[in-house]
Amino acid sequence: MKSIEIGKSAVVASQAALGVMRMDALDAADAARTVAVAHDSGIDYFDTADIYGFHDHAAHASSRVLGRAWKDAGLKREDIFLQTKFGINIDFSDPNNVHATRYDFSAKHLITRLDEELEALGTDYVDFALLHRPDTLMEAEEIVEAFTTLHKAG
User: Fold this and answer.
1) CA distances from residue 34 to 111, 126, 144 in whole angstroms, order as listed
2) pTM
3) What does the alpha-carbon distance between residue 122 and residue 117 come to, in Å, rounded to a whole number?
4) Active site residue 52
5) Which helix (H) or strand (E) is 16 found in, with range?
């Protein structure tokens, strides 16, 4: 697997990432095997989001499975790069009609959702945190406040 610099971050990771949007549909053994096979193939970059949990109908469900899977696969945190996204609210209350209700790029929401993601992933940091489909109506000052707070927190 070819490795590349991610943007201009100086982070060098696999050119392909394993996206885990539906990983919550896997049992623990299959999830660990998926992560292990990906890593053995040279993939060390994993992409998730706070809203990924469409099988379990719950926010952070796929991140929770991924957090357990990389540990069960025998990987250390420093062996992988984690990217997560946040900023979309999903209504999971009706499993037959799961849909985005709105965007929320307020500093409070972003900080809370990243804290929840860290807990779900079982780690104290992610390598990349991105706005999930940025909204053209977002308040730039809120984004700056959130990312400044997150950056200072490490």
Assistant:
1) 30, 20, 36
2) 0.89
3) 8
4) yes
5) none
